[in-house]
Amino acid sequence: MTMDRSLKVQAGAIKSRNVLTRAERVSRLIELDRWTDESDVVGMPKVRVLKVSLKKKKKVKKEEADDKKGKKKK
Asked: b/e for 38-47, b at 16 or more Cβ within 10 A?
């Protein structure tokens, strides 16, 4: 059975979540040294969620590509 086009997830459509689960928040607070074993789960401090951005590959100039292959420009 095929899947409808509107239901498919495209690679560019993946976004970072703006809400973390409680376990993710606790682990992030432990990394930041803001969490102790005595800390209460209720009233946890807010944790900033970092947005992940993919870096685009740099385009190689045509001349540099030709030089690398051993071809000489006329």
From this structure: eeeeeeeeeb
